[in-house]
Amino acid sequence: MNVEKLRQHANQIFQAGIAAANPYKAVKKHFVLNEKFSKIHIVAFGKAACAMANAAQELIPVNLLGDAIAITNYENVVAVENVEVVGASHPLPDLAGFEAAKRIAEIAKNAKFNELVLVLISGGGSALIPYPVDSISLEEKIAATNLLLSCGATIHEINCVRKHLSQLKGGHLAKMISPAKCHALILSDVLGDDLSVIASGTTVADESTFAEAITILKERNVWNGTPKSVRDYLEDAICETPKFIENVENTLIGSNLMSVEAAVKSAQLFGYEVIHYDYPLCGEARDAAEKFVLVVKNTRLENEKIAFITGGETTVTLCGNGKGGRNQEMALAFAIAAEKHGLTNKWTFLSGGTDGIDGVSPAAGGIVDAGTLQRMKNAGVKPAELLENNDSYHALKSSNDLLIISATGTNVADLQILLIQTEGNS
After folding, report:
1. What is the pLDDT of residues 333-363, one digit of tens each?
2. Closest listed residue to residue 257, CA positions, set 30, 27, 20, 25
3. Are 350 and 417 contacting, i.e. CB atoms less than 8 angstroms apart?
């Protein structure tokens, strides 16, 4: 088997993982009307909002359908029958998202007893519906978010802070909906599927505190750079986020682990022996890549075709001004580490975001092989220098190793796939 065939298989296995997180099918499977309501409202937000809202409005009788809105990132905007669709910015919020968040609050507050608000949540929701407390401007909240995104903070840390600056997150949306019933269908992009973290837990009671949010900003060394209004609010807040919410039901309908399992089945159909690698994958992207190489290097490979498969969400601490994302950085770092540690055999490594978008770039991630670094050098690129500048996008572009698939309409974090053809076998 040649490297091109390995690359083809890696792409197909990745697509199988994405297909397992199909938001339309997930809503169709899990939304069952087993109670009588006088009206059903739809509130959808996240990268899969349009597909989820479309499935829901098909299931709800027209005479019962009330207000219906879906907020998604601009790349995933599609028209949905009977639903108002709004495009907004991700990963940094914008005014369109702010106005849409106010519309969500209006729907929630106007919902009446004996009505249902069906909340459809998917990855990216935190950025897409910014609704800061009155004493903090949208620009100030964006500044605080940007600091956290740039310092390598985890999604749990970022969303903990977001929850304590918001009028919707941290369970506030569910409190607004009462006395109507709130039922949330949730597509998870968070490792471990903690419902209080996904999209910052708009419909889930929140155990975190203002003190924890302050600690995160201080320990990440961004407290002093955080806008004064944010610091003042966190320090002076009297009322914590809701710790108990009545009349709400939350259902997990898709996750990264489900997509990993689908990728495993796909690899097995191609005849690969699958080795489950260190799930969930997390930590600094370049460090995780080198560790991956070292583990594979020290693993005895007895079969002709081996697939190491995992998923998760790594982080990147910016030290340069280049372009890319965590998956592209991991792919570039993997290629560099593979050469450094002498990874033999024919191999290809793919790291990609299931949403089709990696950082601020048109790529979903990267797919590299043993020839990647030479192709970069032939193009006049110095791989290690670009990695140090966090410029994985241009490095991978020079070697034709960007993974470009366009927005997928779903989001369950990332998948990593390493395929190996052992020496002496073809």
Report:
1. 999 999 999 998 899 999 999 999 998 889 9
2. 20
3. yes
pLDDT digits (tens, 9 = 90+) for 376-426: 999 999 999 999 999 999 999 999 999 999 888 888 999 999 999 987 544
Other C-beta atoms within 10 Å of 238: how many?
Answer: 5
This prediction has a pTM of 0.81
The beta strand positions in 335-383, using DSSP E, are 346-353, 365-369
- What is the C-alpha to C-alpha distance for residues 178 and 378, in angstroms, rounded to an integer? 62
Q: Where are the beta strands (DSSP E) in 21-145?
A: 39-45, 65-73, 84-88, 115-121
Q: What share of the chain is helix, strand, coil (3-state, %, to 5)?
A: 40, 20, 40
- Rounded-to-integer distance, Cα 223 and Cα 148, Å: 10
Residue 132, strand partner residues:
166
Terminal Cα-to-Cα distance of the chain (whole angstroms)? 5
Q: Which domains does the chain have, with CATH numbers?
A: 3-18+257-421 (3.40.1480.10), 22-254 (3.40.50.10180)
The strand pair at 365-369 and 402-403 is best described as antiparallel
Tokens representing 98 are 């702010």
DSSP H or E stretch at residue 249: strand 248-254
CB 74 within 8 A of CB 141: no
